[in-house]
Design brief:
By secondary structure, this protein is an alpha/beta fold. The protein has one domain: Maf protein (Alpha-Beta Complex). The protein is 37% helix and 25% strand. The chain has seven helices and seven strands; from the N terminus they run βαβααββαββαβαα. Strands 1, 2, 3, 4, 5, 6 and 7 form a seven-stranded mixed β-sheet that branches. Strand 1, helix 1 and strand 2 form a beta-alpha-beta unit. Helix 2 runs antiparallel to helix 3.
Length: 198
């Protein structure tokens, strides 16, 4: 297997790759995401395009320090009625986020790219439509008390692979992409590039 690098500190993304049998190094990008995203927001760049641009910027950042390696960059953008939302930092913000999302459909755009030596070899964005059920505010409070600070690790303040599944009425998209790692398209591209056995 070629030298693969995941340009992310996400344990969930790493676990998806590990479970698929890939061997890779995990080296988080040092990119200031909000600084990169600020001009994109001012220019009203679509959420799906932002996800791809940020994923590419992260991969390039890591690839610059690791020549010859194939770097996987990922990013995920949540949009609600075309408004882009970012991670929450407090329980009050997490509660407000879930109250805002309940009974509505939001979009998760999971961008993924492959970069080697400054050249972007492949780009992909997986859109996922997420419909949250209507919930009692007391349930939301109890849910957040159960999950604790894990709510701060995702932009939606939920982890669909865990207790967050209880918040949803319907999802359209694959679980890998919702977690932030569009695995099946990635594996297909790695086979096409003859990086993994196919």
């Amino acid at each position: 297997m070629a030298n693969l690098v995941l340009a992310s500190g996400s344990r969930h993304r790493a676990m998806v790759l590990e479970n698929a049998g890939l061997t890779f190094a995990q080296i988080p990008s040092e990119l200031d995401e909000r600084a990169v995203e600020a001009p994109l927001a001012q220019a009203n760049v679509l959420p799906e395009d932002r996800a791809e641009i940020l994923a590419e910027a992260k991969a390039i950042d890591v690839a610059e320090r690791h020549s010859g390696h194939l770097v996987i960059g990922c990013d995920q953008i949540l949009s609600l009625d075309e408004k882009v939302l970012h991670k929450v930092n407090t329980m009050e913000q997490a509660q407000a986020r879930l109250l805002d999302l309940q009974g509505r459909t939001h979009m998760l755009h999971s961008g993924i790219v492959l970069v080697r030596d400054g050249e972007t070899l492949w780009r992909h964005v997986a859109p996922c439509a997420m419909t949250m059920r209507v919930m009692d505010p007391g349930f939301i409070g109890r849910h957040l008390a159960d999950v604790g600070e894990a709510a701060f690790s995702s932009v939606g303040a939920y982890q669909i692979e865990g207790r967050g599944a209880q918040l949803f009425e319907k999802i359209e998209g694959d679980l890998f992409s919702i977690i932030g790692m569009p695995l099946l398209p990635l594996l297909d591209e790695l086979r096409r590039l003859e990086v993994i056995d196919g």
